[in-house]
Amino acid sequence: MVLETAIEILLNGLQQGAIFALLGIGLSVILGTMDFLNLAHGALYLIGGYAGMYFIRETSLSAGYLNSIGVDAIGLGLGFAAAMILVPVFGFIVGLLMERYVAEPFYDRPETDQLLVTFGLALIVQEVIKGMLGGNTFQPTAPTTLFGINVGGPVMLPIIGNYPQWRLYLVGIALFVIGLTYLVIEKTDFGLVVQAGTHDSEMVRMLGIRINRSYSLVFAMGAALAAFAGLIGVSFQTVSPQIGTERALIPAFLVLVVGGAGSVIGAIFGGFVLGITVAGMTVLASQWAQIVLYAVAAGVLLFRPEGLFGSKGVVE
Amino acid sequence: MSDPETDGGTAVSEGPDPEPFGGQVGDLYRTVRDHELSVVVGSAVFLLFFPFLLVDGLEVVNGLLGDPGIGGYEGLASLVLIYGIIVVGYNLLLGYTGLLSFGHAAFFGTAAYVTGLVSSTTEISFLGLSATMPGITSPLAMILFGTLFATLLAWPIGFMSIRRSGVYFAVLTLTFGQMLYFFALGPGAGITNGDNGFSDLNVGELFGFINLDGLVPFVGKMEYVFIAVLFLLALTVANRIINSPYGLIFKALGENEQRVEFVGLNVFRYKLMAFVISGSFAGLGGSLFAIHEAFVHPSTALYWIQSGDFVIMTVLGGTGSLVGPVFGAFIFEYISNVISGTTLPVIGQVGSLWRLILGAVFVAIVWVFPRGVYGGLVDIKNFIAGQAVDALRSDESSPPAEPEQGGDD
């Protein structure tokens, strides 16, 4: 019984944690390299979720502007595999545009202005989606087959019995993407520049490296990861305009705080710590789950402000 | 920024001096204008006409435009003043000390709940303990309890949050606020009535004989008068703080924290005081909100979006000036309560799209007008005044004399 609960917590925690980690990596690396804090990071998750739904299946509409002008259903019905390529690409493009037209004009403005403008942007994205498609909650987009493999339905696991098979696959997919990101940051020249940028961006610039180009790439990569997190997220959770702030922005911030700004490994670790915390508390005392989540973040921020993995220099 | 820069006692004026009047009348005008209380007295006069302008004035405009539904209604005036109190206080924190808090809903919401709870006779329970609420229905006592509680809450939250700066300060205030929100929704439901909302408010008579629902000729309900008086009180206090050496230190903190520290002042203490003061303003607003709405729900009182709304109002109106944020509160409440019910030519039925309009206006303001609507109005006024001065001077064809009002020590 105890073992059963523990395994269930671990599995749920891994799913939630993988999404938190994907979100946290982008936010953390963007803050670490360019000192830009993006409150619209949750909006990228939201965009990823809705774009995923659009690419994967046809969804019938019952409210919103599109419905009022006679559109009954939207979606391309390309399936999940296609969405796994298209959504990150879409997120990447959105990220490039956002860096060029929103972030760049604010690099030299005070931190408060950056927070305010991205906060407003997050509001706009959420409201545009709500206005277009209505505030309804849509069903998750879990696929039944992926690359010819059956991923739907339950699977028999030892000890805990039947478990939705897709939830295991999604953890695998997310871990693969997280691992890939980690390798890019750790093993490539691009990653080296990014890492150097988190420590001392001025020095990197003086060495003659065109860090601005890396900046746009980092921003776009973070956006692609957040959009991918959105795609994974809506495959097992419902879709509504609020998910950007409730399920993405605030958790991503907490991950940032726990993991430390600018640290990829910290974001991954922080994501899983928080994911398992939430999953555990949801099973043990669901009313307190969110409160404990915030308390963990506040505790880290107060007693270890550089995060569990961050370098001390990043936090003033 | 619009204040004259001083350089050790001598006023340094930049550009054309926007003071066309000389002589006794002009001096009198300037004396009255520069008196600290003039802004409070001016506001008082305006508040007398505010409901009339909002309801009857806009009704006329509405009629002229062919009834698009842009007229105000009576309760809106009270709502604007309630949020006005909050943002005047919030501005002391954001506009002066430069601290961006995303957790002021905590003080607003807690005060609202406390105000409601002390007035009710319900039985509350938490972790097996239970108590019966006292049922104090005097509005002043209710507000006192609510505001006091919010102030006491702001102390520890501020004490912890101010240890971090910038983004981390914002995240910490957000986490504390969200903890309270989830507490009110879940574990604390025995006290707050959770997701059903708290509606057992009993508002008695003010001083034992004034009914807040009673009518006052011309201005409307007695409740409005009550709120307006408290608004003026809050404005006076904030004005005193801003014009005191204490407030000057707040401003200095916003401009260069390190220098303030080098001068030998205790930065932490001043930041904490700014936080606590703004928290008690939010508490006063929350208490009045509870009395005005007679209903408190976690999502309208404690959720972080509410904190975000305070930020939007303050920035929209203009940080760093006493009354600027109140303009923001007005614009915000007008868009959310009136524009949301209208049908616009291009968009059609506005409905829930009001937040989109608000978001767009907000981003535009942050982008091009960091000093907000009020800052923009001041700039326009100065520009026109400057033009007028230039015109007068060229008429007199006298050399542009240095203004005689120079060293008012």
From TrEMBL, chain A:
Tagged with keyword Transport: yes
Main location: membrane
Keywords: Amino-acid transport, Cell membrane, Membrane, Transmembrane, Transmembrane helix, Transport
Sequence intervals crossing the membrane: 13-32, 39-56, 76-97, 166-185, 215-236, 248-279, 285-303
Gene Ontology cellular component terms for the protein in this record: plasma membrane
Recorded superkingdom: Archaea
Protein's membrane topology: Multi-pass membrane protein
Subcellular localization: Cell membrane
Protein name stated in the entry: Branched-chain amino acid ABC transporter permease
Record carries keyword rRNA processing: no
GO biological process: amino acid transport
Assigned protein family: Belongs to the binding-protein-dependent transport system permease family. LivHM subfamily.
GO MF: transmembrane transporter activity
Pfam families hit by this protein: BPD_transp_2
TrEMBL record, chain B:
Keyword terms, alphabetized: Cell membrane, Membrane, Transmembrane, Transmembrane helix
Cellular compartments annotated: Cell membrane
Taxonomy, superkingdom: Archaea
Residue segments, region Disordered: 1-23
Residues spanning the membrane: 37-55, 75-93, 105-129, 135-155, 167-186, 224-242, 272-291, 311-332, 353-370
GO cellular component: plasma membrane
Gene Ontology molecular function terms on file: branched-chain amino acid transmembrane transporter activity
Membrane topology classification: Multi-pass membrane protein
Official protein name in the record: Branched-chain amino acid ABC transporter permease
Organism lineage string: Archaea, Methanobacteriati, Methanobacteriota, Stenosarchaea group, Halobacteria
